[in-house]
Amino acid sequence: MTKKQNKFYLTTAISYPNGEPHIGHAYEAIITDTVARFNRLIDKDVFFLTGTDEHGIKMLQTAKKQNLEAKDLANKNAPLFIDMLSKINSTHDDFIRTTEDRHRDACIEIWNRMYENGDIYKDKYAGWYSVRDEAYYEEKELTKDDNEFLSPQGTPVTWVEEESYFFRLSNYQEKLLEYYKKHPEFILPATRKNEVTKFVESGLKDLSISRTTFDWGIKVPNDESHVMYVWVDALTNYLTGANFPHPDYTDKWPANFHIIGKDILRFHAVYWPAFLMSANIELPKIVFAHGFLFNKGVKMSKSLGNVVSPTELINKYGRDQIRYFFLREVSLGNDGSYDDDSITRRVNADLANDLGNLIQRSCSMVAKNCNNIIPTPSTNKTRDDILIDTEITNLSYKILDYLEHIEINKILNDIWEQISALNKYFSDQKPWELRKNNTERMNTVLYTTIENIRKIAIMLQPVIPDSSEKILNLLGVDLNKRKFNDINNKDSVIQSNTIGVLSPIFPKIEISDE
Ligand code: MSP
Prior knowledge:
Blueprint: H1 3-6, E1 7-12, H2 23-41, E2 45-52, H3 57-65, H4 70-87, E3 94-97, H5 101-116, E4 120-130, E5 135-137, E6 143-145, E7 148-150, E8 158-167, H6 173-182, E9 187-188, H7 190-201, E10 207-208, E11 210-211, E12 219-220, E13 223-228, H8 230-235, H9 237-240, E14 257-261, H10 265-278, E15 286-290, E16 293-295, H11 310-317, H12 319-329, E17 336-338, H13 340-369, H14 383-404, H15 408-429, H16 431-437, H17 439-460, H18 465-474
Parallel strand pairs: 1-2, 1-14, 2-3, 9-15, 14-15, 16-17
Antiparallel strand pairs: 4-5, 4-8, 6-7, 8-10, 11-13, 12-13
Helix pairs in contact: 3-4, 6-7, 11-12, 12-13, 13-15, 13-17, 14-15, 14-17, 15-17, 16-17, 17-18
The structure holds 5'-O-[(L-methionyl)-sulphamoyl]adenosine.
5'-O-[(L-methionyl)-sulphamoyl]adenosine binds near residues 16, 24, 27 and 260.
């Protein structure tokens, strides 16, 4: 495989730092971090970018309300996003802020390329704009509520009239439809693709891509009275992260995955590919839209007072526990809900009971009966031993398939099926009885159980990195033998390893009476 084929560039959306990060931001970072870690585990050359989207009228208006300059608001809040990323244990390689110089250069270059291609012209814009979404909408898309017009996202819109540069989006309708057809996996999950295709088929109007009524943004080349529309600026961050316009940007670009929320799919699957086509730049491979998270099924909002900070949840339950909960509970692509009860149930049932108890029971038997040394199995394996070994080996291959479309909850579902099967194997074989009259068989059962725990812990590293590390340390697994390839590598087995000190890896969450 060439260096270029082995590279894997993935991104989150960049967040507006007009407030503190919330669970939605953390969720997206958790998904993307997990995908990054899985790909490192299979030895891909991963580059994971995230950051903050600091220009635009929304930032400016929020800053004004707080008596701040927009730049100061961004400087105040961007560190909170960096801090949130460290709390969720994110392994991003770069954090971009759109107010950085390197980003201005990339924006000017893409603008110039679109201009030179004849796709930018000056005219007058008159239409509806949602500051909350930083988006233009057509009248036919709006709904009316108490004399106020609302966007399809339910956000208020205002009438805007000003001189503006336009991008000839209408020229790209057919090209985009053709592209979606030729690249059926460009938009995932598949259901979202139909939504985007319908939108494009319904007709694309040219897009206003500059503003004159404020100046918090990147100035349009050769016309300083205009700033670029915040989405031209924001989307270009993905190129800046790859070092565009330096020619070496193609070492990383095109991105393998843009992982974003469903509310901003139109920008990523319609505007962004059109800009790139116009600038003669390769398109990203996959735009993956995840769903929205709700608190007890209700949209999180300051006015409802139900905004829970990711830090609060992590302090309460632990970072692996929260990573696991969101990735397991929410089927990726669909909306999901969280509350204390469902987190407690998941953590206690799956982590503390299914996985934690199995580790505890098997390892304490090794401690008590085998001098703390993982025993050597007999060469006479039974059908049951072979069955569980084979199923867990097969699972590792299946995970690689799921990874192609980042079906993380399927990965976890299947891993937990095998954890249940391993629990059943352990209970059915009753090593505590074998101890009395068949040490050889007891050794084989303990070995088979613990060897399969090793495999599962390797597979779980991207999802619950701290706990997997503890398990692998407990089993004395060499630091250089924790890659995906080591799952089925005969040289990586652990017989004769000494078991470390046993302490509960997944403490049970006590349910309070409140
Ligand atoms: N700045 C734009 C993105 C520009 S990308 C070139 C933006 N920022 S945002 O802060 O509003 O959202 C950042 C990401 O968080 C988006 O992908 C968005 O879909 C996601 N989420 C925001 N709220 C969310 C939930 N409640 N649940 C899940 N994800 C959510 O949009």
